Amino acid sequence: MSIRVLLADDQALIRAGFAALVRSAADMEVVGEAVDGEDALGQARETRPDVVLMDIRMPGTDGISATGLITGDAELVDVKVLVLTTFEEDDLVLAALRAGASGFLGKGVEPVELLDAIRVVASGEALLSPKATRGLIDRLLAAPTDGAPDLVGADLDVLTEREREVVALVAHGLTNDDIAARLFLSPLTAKTHVNRAMTKLGVRDRAQLVVIAYRTGLVRAGDPD
User: Fold this and answer.
1) 215 vs 40, which has greater pLDDT?
2) Is residue 225 part of a domain?
3) 95 has which bridge partners?
């Protein structure tokens, strides 16, 4: 089954380049091309893509605002947003993550890396781009956020001991396969634990699990993986 991709960028040549790249992958298809954030939201509602490739700097409704509208729409809960920009600044990364983006990449990324990022985001495994650092996570958690889960330690009581362990490993950047290997589980069992933790904590993706893990003190900066 193909990964359905919606492209959102105000520059026609850039959209055309990304469209050609996505179409070159046998496991992907382009379901739409949006010229700004408002258009991206409308097309997301119409086409229900798996992943939206979202530019940040667009006229009218910018990419960060559009990301928040998409991730905040109950009917688009399965749609993931991968933000692309020529401006790889920490503040933009943080704003994109706060808006609910599942990934962040610079437009100078190699073609194979972009295709891999789309696959990773579509699978729900993504958190940050390869260039994002633990320092960005620390800044994200230290800064005020709008709409992000704001839990205290006691809220983790809803999780089983195994689920808490799995959430901690997610916060260290491990994939489901990595978690399965670390805990001697099957990948399906690891995925089940992750999904149950997200359901119990009321979050939509792994990025928010990481926020919770740090804010509640389950994981701290500098902890060994």
Assistant:
1) 40
2) no
3) none
